Amino acid sequence: MALKTAKEYIDSLRNLKLNVYLMGEKVENPVDHPIIRPSLNSVAMTYELAQNPEYEDLMTATSTLTGKKINRFTHLHNSTEDLVKKVKMQRLVGQKTASCFQRCVGLDAFNAVYSTTFEIDEKYGTNYHDRFVEYLKYVQEEDLTVDGAMTDPKGDRGLSPSQQADPDLFLHIVERREDGIVVRGAKAHQTGMVNSHEVLVMPTQTMREEDKDYAVCFAVPTDAEGITIIYGRQSCDTRKLEEGKLDVGNPKFGGHEALVIFDNVFVPNERIFMCGEYDFSGILVERFAGYHRQSYGGCKVGVGDVLIGAAALIADYNGVPKASHIKDKIIEMVHLNETLYSCGIACSCEGHKTKAGNYEIDMLLANVCKQNVTRFPYEIARLAEDIAGGIFVTMPSEKDLKHPEIGKYVEKYLKGVASVPTINRMKVLRFIENMTLGTAAVGYRTESLHGAGSPQAQRIMISRQSNLERKKQLVKDILDIED
Ligand code: SF4
Ligand code: FE
User: Fold this and answer.
1) How confident is the model at residue 372 (pLDDT cuts 50, 70, 90)?
2) CA dihedral defined by 426, 427, 429, 433, rounded to 10 degrees?
3) 3-class state of residue 266 by DSSP
4) What pLDDT does 2 receive?
5) With contact defined as beta carbons under 8 Å apart, do 439 and 254 qualify?
6) 481 CA to middle of ligand 2, Å?
7) Domains in the chain, ordered, with CATH?
8) Whose CA is nearest to atom 5 of ligand 1?
9) What pTM was estimated for this model as a whole?
């Protein structure tokens, strides 16, 4: 089986014995949990669209490892065209879900680990790359969702991993055995962990020799012994527990993050892809982050498309689609959104082949892409809120709308254009609320800021890649200045 259907994917999750906690309670059946399910539906969309002939070119690829047809979310980019298609695929899935569909963290990890393990082996004569290739063949064949896990809790940010008062604040090797290693620590903000079959762990930052036990990369099933998943709360999440669906905003789709604990988890040798080679830690981080910064030029743009659509729709329902300032605000939203897309496409077109043979984005442009993402979605969201009017946060609930006595008032006074049913207007207003302030705002706003690295992380990379000396030389050449 190289392509799972959405149903097969969902059934396969039922076989996992995940150790998940949500709001202080153990979740026995995460697949059908009302708070978790919308996020699962978003991942399922990556399977569903791959079955649709209309999207075959974007959603599937030919494996460079086996020659078989696979889901693009498990693919090693084989050209700059592949990098472009990745961004287009992410925009598409963002448009279909209006949320984070979670599966890209694995894709970005595959491509970063693939090239990095090749270079570690080249320097140290290790065999991580072959191990990883075998692992990825398994992932492709089974069409798995893999959670790329990078961010450690980090404790005192002024101290290195080995200097922390509590050594577990960065995930590390606690025991080396003949048949593998034992690791302890945690990974924070893990996107899609509950909807993933496997977790691919990478180090979180550049490491020095004294931190070499922290320079570790490996993969284990998400239900491996010793893993505990603590589901993150999102704004307005308990609305999903209510009877009706209107107040949820986006009742079908969502995203999730979790704090994942690794309490003495055993990793067999064949699943270890870095084990102490601290000098490659920073390289792996840079590559994973680079790919994920490219990703945001696709996924956030797709979600932005839906938010722009919601703003235009509510303008129609409010009876003001022709007002010049409304039209101008929508133009501005489109301009900002397409600027993000341009960066995602540009860093892909300017990509290059790695020593291992897969393709990597242009790092400077990928970081510029993500730096823009830390800003533009906020402005797009602000404009959507502006167009919606304050009612999107002051509106009565679905229960009021359906109430036998007061329902008629809600129906009457929340009416916009006479021909549009009140409930449709309320749906769009709640949807805008969801995307700007509710559960989807985690993915569209805060994740735009902090996901794939906070703004300062990109500024460091931009500074490193900016080649100021060359720019100064350009001036000297024109002005005939010789030092
Ligand atoms: Fe994919 Fe975007 Fe979610 Fe990252 S934030 S996993 S790129 S959808
Ligand atoms: Fe993300």
Assistant:
1) very high
2) 130
3) strand
4) 86
5) yes
6) 47
7) 6-277 (2.40.110.10), 284-474 (1.20.140.10)
8) 100
9) 0.98
